[in-house]
Every structure is written in C-alpha cells, then in structure tokens.
Amino acid sequence: MSTTTTTTPLPATSKSLTFLAPATPPHVISTPLAAPAASELVVKVHAAAINPVDIQLWNSALLGWLAGKKEKGIGRDYSGTVVAVGAGVKGWKEGDEVFGLISRPTGEGTFSEYVHPIIGKDPIAKKPTCWTHEMAAAVPLVVLTAFSCLDWLPADKKKNGFGRVVVAGASGGVGMWCVQLAKKLYDCNVTGICSAKNADFVRQMGADEIVDYTSEFVSQALLENLPAGRQYDLYIDCVGGTELFADLHALLHPQAAYVTIVGDKTSRTAMGGPLTYLYTPAQVLRFLKGLLWGPRYANVLLYAKSELLEQVAGLAERGEVEVVVQEVVRGLLLEEEGGSEEAWKRVYEFMEGGRVRGKIVVAIE
Ligand SMILES: NC(=O)c1ccc[n+]([C@@H]2O[C@H](COP(=O)([O-])OP(=O)(O)OC[C@H]3O[C@@H](n4cnc5c(N)ncnc54)[C@H](OP(=O)(O)O)[C@@H]3O)[C@@H](O)[C@H]2O)c1
User: Fold this and answer.
1) Is the CB of 239 under 6 A from ligand 1?
2) How far is the CA of 168 from the centre of ligand 1 (A)?
3) Which fold has domain 146-299?
4) Atom 35 of ligand 1, nearest CA residue
5) Whole-model pTM?
6) Mean pLDDT of the chain
C-alpha cells in the first residue's frame, strides 16, 4: 500500500551540500529522493538561509559523533513548494508554498533540492504571499529564537505593554526580530545596541534608542538613557560575553531578566545556547542566583513551534514586520567550475565575520 499522496511523480534524485567529518570541506552529493513517510511532506526548496549555528554544527565534534559516519546535511531554514504529502498528514497539499525549519540537528540539511519536514516536529507554515521565497527562508530560525527571548519579559509588561527592553546585537538576524516583536507584540520601549553604521537600520526596525557599542561605554549609556526611578525589564543578549554583569543590578530590577542565546563565550564558530551550561559553571550559578533573588538569568533555545511561524506570517500579511536580506548567494549546489566551493566560502566568511545586517540567503537553483 502506498503511503504517499502525490499526483506528479517525484524526481529520482536530489542534490545536497553535505560533509562527512567535522570541519572538512563540504561537497555536493546526489542521492535517491525518498517518498514521504506517513508524517512527512516532501518540499522542493527554492531558498535556504545560513545561520551561525550551521557553521557551529559543521565544526562540531559532538554532532560528528552523534550523526556517525553518514553524510551530514547543512542548513536548517528553507522556503519552498510542497511536492508530496505523507498519507498520515492532514492540512497540507501539493503546491502549497511553505517556509520552515528542519529543527533536528542530525536531520537532513536544507542546502538541498528537496527536504522532508516531519509534521508535528519541524516548524512549518504557509508562506505569506507578500514574501518571496528568499525572504521567507530568512525567517524561521531567527524569529523562533526572538519569540523565545521575549517570553522572558515580566508577565505584567507582556500584558500591559510599556516594558523597557534592550537588544544587544540588534542589527543581526535574531536581534532585528527581537526589536520588531518587542514593539509589535508588547509595545515596549526598545534600546538597540549596534555599531553606528547600523543605527538607522535598527531604528527602522522600531528601536527608540540606540547605543553604539563601538564608541560608547554600553552600561553607562544604558543607565543614562533610563528615566528617573526606572530600570530595564529585559536584556536580550545576541552577542555573548560577560561585560554587562558588573552593572546587572543597576540596569535590571529584581523581576526583570537577562536572557542570552549565546552564553559567556564569544567565539562565533563554537556552539552556544543552553549547551554551554555544561561547561560554564558561572552560568549555572548566575541562573540559580537569579531564580532566588533576581534578576532572572537564562541561556535559551529557540521555540520550535509552527504556530509562531503562522503568527509572524500574519504580521507580514498585515505589513507589520519587515524581512531584511543583505545578500542572496548563488551556486551552492553547482558542481561545475568550483561553484559550490566558492558559494560555501562566501557564506562561511559572512557567518565567521559576524558583520551581517539582517540575513544571508542561499538560492537553491
Ligand atoms: N540559542 C539559540 O537558540 C540561538 C538561535 C539563534 C542564534 N544563536 C546564536 O546567537 C548569535 C547571534 O545570531 P544571529 O543569527 O543574530 O547572528 P548574526 O546575524 O550573524 O549577527 C551579526 C550582527 O551582530 C552584530 N554585532 C556583532 N558584534 C556585536 C557587539 N559586540 N554588539 C552589538 N552587535 C554586534 C553585527 O553588527 P555590527 O556589524 O554593527 O557589529 C551584525 O549585524 C550567534 O552566536 C548564534 O549562534 C543562538
């Protein structure tokens, strides 16, 4: 008995960019294209996005060990068209334009002609018609991380608005969504920390105040910007490091929170997030102290929820949020003339450099 509902036959093979051992040069492979399992879709990918975590996973001995000897895919974000639907899947049909995240680190990569999202596991939503595939591919991982960070806003500020939020790394992929959602969903006053060259961009995302980390003492500038008698409600760190902790109690009130998506480390190529609790006792101590006396401290992971992608798609349809793509890189699956090597080098350098405004997207041609 067939487990697939598809009217158009699938191609026999799919090309992907993969690697074998950690930190070895990726290469293009062609593998048989599997029909969807009962809970899967098959999506033809039109665009994918690169995130720092893609470089971190490629570099990671732990992933290398967990995934074993198989070819490992690169890329988590994608946007594309549904071309086959597993027999147990409800609510999706061939031809649907979708965007989503393959959230399993050892799962297939999205730098691939076709992917197999698992419904109920991998976040997925209908692509808003006002976004191109290149725009939609730039959204899932970073917006789901921003939702997770903003969840740490004190409950009264979530309900009534007027919270004060600081976003460090406000011009980057996650930061620009933290700024936009803090304004649109929670009506907060937002301070973006960025370099002077990105100040106008961060203001355009909705920031009320800017602190230029390249020319100002950040803590001092943040304190000077506070109205008398007020402190911040949430500090979102998208950069890493420990500089702010000396002034933590002056900046944040006891019910406020400091959330980081990176941790104390600052390397761009080493894995961040909650995993760093395992080898950074200072973070564990800070978490416990925050729990007892405040302000709360947390190193958080993105929320892998389809309904949050649906929510942001709704905001996009109403023209309430913007997607910013700095560059679309082409040729990633092009074996001839070193096309894929060149494209990989370009996306790698963008991620390692850490100077991207918005997102870098990869066209899957
Ligand atoms: N825990 C999780 O679930 C999770 C999820 C997503 C990402 N992350 C991690 O979060 C970090 C950020 O990710 P991302 O995708 O937002 O990165 P990104 O887009 O590559 O960030 C680049 C931006 O960071 C800014 N920046 C660099 N140093 C800064 C500093 N000291 N102060 C303020 N801004 C600075 C740069 O602006 P300038 O050019 O002006 O410096 C640039 O616009 C990465 O380490 C990533 O691995 C974790």
Assistant:
1) yes
2) 8
3) Rossmann fold (3.40.50)
4) 169
5) 0.97
6) 95
